Amino acid sequence: MVNQILNFTFRTAKDSDIIGMIRLLKVLFSIETDFVFDEVTQQRGLEMMLGDCTNRRIMVAELNQQIVGMCSAQVLVSTAEGGIVAIIEDLIVEDAWRGEGIGKELLLAMESWAIARGVRRLQLLADRNNLRAMEFYKKMDWKYTQLICLQKRNCDIYTLKE
Question: 10, 61 in Cβ contact below 8 A?
Fold first, then answer.
């Protein structure tokens, strides 16, 4: 899918975009305090995402052969929905290009991708302290739920057996 607004191109990410996406993730993780940027780790994650185009997708916004925005999603099974759902993460647009509709187009493209796969519900992770992002999601008709996100770090099979 290729759409254009002004001179921006919106398309599915490819391996050659990884360097640009890593740069964007560095910006994102400077905002999201739950995560620490590590280039090797983020590259590994991006390679995994790009390696499964059926269940995972990264969309990018490109301007003059530079990646200026990105959004990722992946599907999983929900017993509550009795079907697949998608979780959206890593929506980030370079500061210089915010307010130009790029985030909206990336999010809408991801929604279309999910709908085409029969997704019953979209979920989105966002930093609650990123007020600008929270206002954006509200304008995009995303709703708060009673659920919260919990995480456990450094999980491996040896510690889980205890």
Answer: yes
Residue with tokens 């019953």: 120
Q: Where are the domains of the chain?
A: 3-160
Dist. CA 86–CA 72, nearest whole Å: 10
2 and 112 in contact (C-beta within 8 Å)?
A: no
Domain 3-160, CATH 3.40.630.30 — does that match? yes
d(Cα 10, Cα 5) in Å, to the nearest integer?
9
DSSP H or E segment with residue 22? helix 18-31
Q: What confidence tens digit (pLDDT) does each residue in 30-89 have?
A: 888 788 888 999 999 999 999 998 899 999 999 999 999 999 999 999 999 999 999 999
